């Protein structure tokens, strides 16, 4: 009984005084005008009405011809900066992390208007899909091949990772 009395007294002593809030201020009031007011409508009409000062576009120049002076990207915003160097580059990356079932990469080389490359990815059924390609003025020409044999699902054999579960048995062909 004494413990309850002591706790009650401590609770009363440590209680915060009640907070009182003032009523909201009327200093600012409601906004003047509304979306249906004549002043808003006249401003909107002025914004949406075309300005007769400029007239229709001139057809004298036409569309860009797309020429790039032997490859690369000569020019800026339709203006020709003169002859430019043909595009020449090589790049390659490879990600191999068998504990997560990752094995993918890409390699490409470009000389002028011809790009040749290869990219590959490890499929969920355990095979590696490989795409060898050439891209030139005649378009993109891929040759798709596969390494390994399908194992029926998951990434078995790649670090023991078995895929995402859910009853899925990987890709079927």
From TrEMBL:
Q: Where is the signal peptide?
A: 1-15
Gene Ontology, cellular component aspect: extracellular matrix; extracellular space
What keywords sit in the KW lines? Cuticle, Signal
Q: Name one GO molecular function term.
A: structural constituent of cuticle
Q: Which domain of life is it from?
A: Eukaryota
For this protein, the record's InterPro entries field holds: CHIT_BIND_RR_consensus (IPR031311), Insect_cuticle (IPR000618), Insect_Cuticle_Struc_Prot (IPR051217)
**Which PANTHER family would you find in this protein's record?**
CUTICULAR PROTEIN 56F, STRUCTURAL CONTITUENT OF CUTICLE
Protein name, entry field: Pro-resilin
């Amino acid at each position: 009984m004494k413990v309850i009395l002591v706790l009650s007294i401590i609770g009363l002593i440590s209680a915060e005084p009640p907070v009182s809030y003032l009523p909201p201020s009327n200093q600012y009031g409601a906004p003047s005008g509304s979306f249906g007011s004549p002043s808003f409508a006249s401003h909107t009409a002025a914004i949406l009405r075309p300005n007769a000062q400029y007239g229709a576009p001139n057809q004298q120049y036409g569309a860009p011809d797309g020429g790039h002076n032997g490859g690369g990207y000569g020019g800026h915003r339709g203006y020709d900066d003169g002859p430019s160097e043909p595009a020449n580059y090589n790049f390659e990356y490879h990600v191999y992390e068998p504990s997560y079932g990752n094995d993918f990469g890409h390699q490409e080389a470009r000389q002028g208007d011809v790009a040749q490359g290869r990219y590959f990815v490890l499929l969920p059924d355990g095979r590696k899909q490989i795409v060898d390609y050439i891209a030139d003025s005649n378009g993109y020409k891929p040759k798709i091949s596969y390494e390994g044999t399908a194992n029926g699902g998951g990434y078995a054999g790649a670090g023991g990772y078995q895929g995402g579960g859910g009853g899925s048995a990987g890709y079927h062909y």
